[in-house]
Amino acid sequence: MEIGLVELSRLQFAMTAMYHFLFVPLTLGLSILVAIMETVYVMTNRPIWRQMTKFWGMLFGINFALGVATGITMEFQFGMNWSYYSHYVGDIFGAPLAIEGLMAFFLEATFVGLFFFGWDKLSKVQHMVVAWLVAIGSNFSALWILIANGWMQNPVGAAFNPETMRMEMTSFFDVVFNEVAQAKFVHTVSAGYVTASVFVLGVSALYLLQERHKDLARRSIAVASAFGLASALSVVVLGDESGYSASHTQKMKLAAIEAMWETHEAPAPFTAIGFPDKEARETHYAVEIPWVMGLIGTRSLTQEIPGINDLVDEAEDRIRDGLIAYDALMTIRAERDATSPELRATFEAHSENLGFALLLKRYVDDPREATEAQIKQAANDTVPGVGPLFWAFRIMVALGFSFIAVMLYFFYRASFRRMQFPRWSLYAAVAIIPTPWIAAELGWFVAEFGRQPWTVDGVLPTALSVSHLSVADLLISLAGFVIFYTVLFVIEMSLMVKYIRKGPFQDVAETEAWQERHIHRLRTHDGQGPFANPAE
């Protein structure tokens, strides 16, 4: 297997996937925030909330359109660059993707049009329902995508068929309710809600600093801080659930994230900081917090978390066991219908580790001819890049806790300090706008890079999943994607900056007239009330 081909294929897919995910979190979060704002408009009949819905809805629409364009090109790569992967597991992986396209995406796309062009054709309640259907469709799309991805992390509800030489679905229920998929879904959408909340918070803070659209900005901060606080807390709680799931579905990933080289006595400590050394298999200058990792990973004080060295030894045993399955499989293919029941029983007994035997194909065409050194090397290959995973995870977690602090502060100021915000806090809100995207990208890096060397964990090695393309083909397509995505990025940023600078330009006269009447009524009713002389 040509290593350059595999690396280029991985680079291309990583680039397109992570670029696409720049749009997904904001789409998920803004769809909910916009629906909330329109619901308040329907309940209060205050035009300012209609103006807010239209303004943030416009930014949602720009982001949604660019996200669709990047998502389509990303999915084409399964057939172009990863054709053997598509052939091997297409029966399982293709089902949730098809459902996402037929149900969720069409639901979302249909009602997006009604949302933007139905303001004067639908009643207020009907339009609010449309806004919520757009939000539901957006989140429903994420659900099916993450079910597909969750199966790659924890391949349940499927079995290898020696007749077709493919993985086939045995339980759709198990695939849909895969614990990894469900944990990833709620964690990912919560991260999207935080992203949108920080975005709305930052843009609104910019308006307050510029002393523009202050009424819209203050209300937007109130909504974003409340929604963002709940979402940020959810991200941390649900991230803990993902760690617990990994402790029994992806043990090597969890050990690599923690740079846990040796198996600790229960409960294992959490390494807050350190410098992992993969060659020496130790972590220099480690600062450990007792018990924490054991509680996160096992929810107990007595259960061990295996270290990398023990997991490598286990992988070597599984490779040797997988060789028995591989040898039986080759005999079944040769004998076909003449295969004895005993041989088929042998294959079934060892088929769970067939994927580990396939790791040897990186070094030898026939795994049965592998040397002891090659078996040990293949076992060592099951250790992902510890250093990058270790630091990516900690930066992500640090950002997650910082979002809780930021949202709590702005929620307090909005709720108990009459929406008065010090200028330093507004500058800080603007400065942190990019940080949730950094956290989200790091999260995907941990999830996908931590799964290596597998495309489907324990089933299909990445080195076997690629199409038979030339390096030149990949370089040309990679250059094409870079150019295409660069153009889309320029368009996205230009449009977003243009409409943020323009501000809420729809329904301005109606909103201002209503606001003047409202303030007049408050002054007439109670000259000493808090709205008698509204603070600027």
TrEMBL record:
<dbReference type="Pfam" id="PF01654">
    <property type="entry name" value="Cyt_bd_oxida_I"/>
</dbReference>
<keyword id="KW-0408">Iron</keyword>
<keyword id="KW-0813">Transport</keyword>
<dbReference type="GO" id="GO:0009055">
    <property type="term" value="F:electron transfer activity"/>
</dbReference>
<keyword id="KW-0249">Electron transport</keyword>
<keyword id="KW-1003">Cell membrane</keyword>
<keyword id="KW-0349">Heme</keyword>
<feature type="transmembrane region" description="Helical">
    <location>
        <begin position="129"/>
        <end position="147"/>
    </location>
</feature>
<feature type="transmembrane region" description="Helical">
    <location>
        <begin position="221"/>
        <end position="239"/>
    </location>
</feature>
<dbReference type="GO" id="GO:0070069">
    <property type="term" value="C:cytochrome complex"/>
</dbReference>
<comment type="similarity">
    <text>Belongs to the cytochrome ubiquinol oxidase subunit 1 family.</text>
</comment>
<dbReference type="GO" id="GO:0016682">
    <property type="term" value="F:oxidoreductase activity, acting on diphenols and related substances as donors, oxygen as acceptor"/>
</dbReference>
<dbReference type="InterPro" id="IPR002585">
    <property type="entry name" value="Cyt-d_ubiquinol_oxidase_su_1"/>
</dbReference>
<dbReference type="GO" id="GO:0005886">
    <property type="term" value="C:plasma membrane"/>
</dbReference>
<keyword id="KW-1133">Transmembrane helix</keyword>
<keyword id="KW-0812">Transmembrane</keyword>
<feature type="transmembrane region" description="Helical">
    <location>
        <begin position="20"/>
        <end position="43"/>
    </location>
</feature>
<dbReference type="GO" id="GO:0020037">
    <property type="term" value="F:heme binding"/>
</dbReference>
<feature type="transmembrane region" description="Helical">
    <location>
        <begin position="55"/>
        <end position="72"/>
    </location>
</feature>
<protein>
    <submittedName>
        <fullName>Cytochrome d oxidase</fullName>
    </submittedName>
</protein>
<keyword id="KW-0479">Metal-binding</keyword>
<keyword id="KW-0472">Membrane</keyword>
<feature type="transmembrane region" description="Helical">
    <location>
        <begin position="391"/>
        <end position="412"/>
    </location>
</feature>
<feature type="transmembrane region" description="Helical">
    <location>
        <begin position="92"/>
        <end position="117"/>
    </location>
</feature>
<feature type="transmembrane region" description="Helical">
    <location>
        <begin position="190"/>
        <end position="209"/>
    </location>
</feature>
<dbReference type="GO" id="GO:0019646">
    <property type="term" value="P:aerobic electron transport chain"/>
</dbReference>
<keyword id="KW-0997">Cell inner membrane</keyword>
<dbReference type="GO" id="GO:0046872">
    <property type="term" value="F:metal ion binding"/>
</dbReference>
<feature type="transmembrane region" description="Helical">
    <location>
        <begin position="467"/>
        <end position="491"/>
    </location>
</feature>
<feature type="transmembrane region" description="Helical">
    <location>
        <begin position="424"/>
        <end position="447"/>
    </location>
</feature>
